[in-house]
Amino acid sequence: MIPQTTRKFIDNLIDYYISEAGSYKQMAKTYSDEVEDVNANAFGIITGCIYSAFLQAYQNQKQTPLLEDTQEFAQMIKVRAAQIKRSILDAKV
Question: What highest taxon heads this organism's lineage (predicted)?
Fold first, then answer.
């Protein structure tokens, strides 16, 4: 089970990336010649950044996430995926 402090950290990160979706959509547009779906690419960049921070949080505690922790993380993203997608779609770039 993800520790409560790490869970709160991840939730706050999701909120941050939702608020900054336009920046990540702009970054994704940079690769639009290689990747057709800019919105999906932005979603991938955002979730990749959040996942990297999730792993870093464990590393900072000198721990490795268990399979259950990674599954719980994936569920956290899934629950908030619609919000992330909406923020990308609504971003004016």
Answer: Archaea
Q: What count of Cα atoms within 13 Å lies in the side-chain half-sphere of residue 79?
A: 10
At position 57, the amino acid (one-letter code) is A
C-alpha span between 68 and 73 (Å, rounded): 9
> What are the distances in angstroms from CA 20 to CA 45, 60, 84?
12, 25, 10
pLDDT (tens digit per residue) in 30-62: 887 888 899 999 999 999 999 999 999 999 999
Q: Which residues contact 63 (CB under 8 A, 6 or more apart)?
A: none
Domain encompassing residue 56: 4-90
pTM: 0.91
